[in-house]
Design goal:
Number of helices: 2
Strand content: 15-25%
Order of helices and strands: HEEEEH
Shape: flat
Largest sheet: 4 strands, antiparallel
Low-confidence stretches: 141-151, 153-178
CATH architecture of the largest domain: 2-Layer Sandwich
Structural class: alpha+beta
Radius of gyration: 39 Å
Length: 196
């Protein structure tokens, strides 16, 4: 009987070990499938980008149609290459997905598309400068408009409150006069009823 119990315990330990190994293998397969799906998404995005005849600065993002846990992003941006200090345009396609521990994993493909001529660099810098000026002006204008709106709202609220107080005092005086007339009418009705 002891031999059978020991054999069952050993068999149970072996079965538990096999189940743990199978569970880890399944988790690994799921992670690799998710990685491959994320890689396919960013590879397709990069291929579509490289197939275009021209590109400009852009940012696109979304989620996978088949796996909503995978989010992707495609960026085209200009940057200065550090060695020669020349401006280039690069495409960056990336995807993020959670691993079994809940931590976000990221896969990224980067492709330098082309170097820029001096004329193109000047155009980009001018656009960036105009954008910065516009944002500064737009921000100031919004701030000024916001302040003006607050002041006009305050004055209109004060006017409305004054009108409301006038209306209330007028209605209170007319209500009190109306109340007196109502009281007289009710007294007359009572006198008639009691007199009969």
């Amino acid at each position: 009987m002891i031999e059978v119990s020991v054999a069952l315990i050993i068999l149970g330990m072996l079965a538990a070990t096999v189940l743990v190994i199978i569970n880890k293998a399944v988790d690994t397969v799921v992670v690799w499938q998710t990685k491959m799906e994320a890689f396919e998404i960013i590879r397709e995005n990069m291929e579509q980008l490289l197939a275009k005849s021209s590109v400009s600065d852009m940012l696109e993002y979304g989620t996978s149609e088949t796996n909503p846990d995978i989010t992707w992003e495609t960026t085209v941006e200009s940057f200065y290459e550090p060695i020669t200090n020349k401006m280039w345009v690069r495409a960056v396609c990336s995807a993020e997905f959670p691993d079994p521990n809940g931590e976000q994993q990221k896969i990224e493909l980067t492709q330098w598309l082309t170097g820029l001529s001096q004329k193109q660099i000047m155009q980009i810098l001018e656009q960036k400068q105009k954008l910065a000026e516009y944002e500064a002006q737009f921000g100031d204008a919004n701030g000024a408009n916001y302040q003006e709106n607050l002041e006009s709202q305050d004055s209109s609220q004060r006017d409305t409150q004054q009108q409301d107080s006038r209306t209330n005092s007028e209605s209170q005086s007319s209500d009190s006069a109306g109340d007196a007339e109502l009281q007289k009418f009710l007294e007359e009705v009572r006198k008639r009823e009691t007199g009969n």
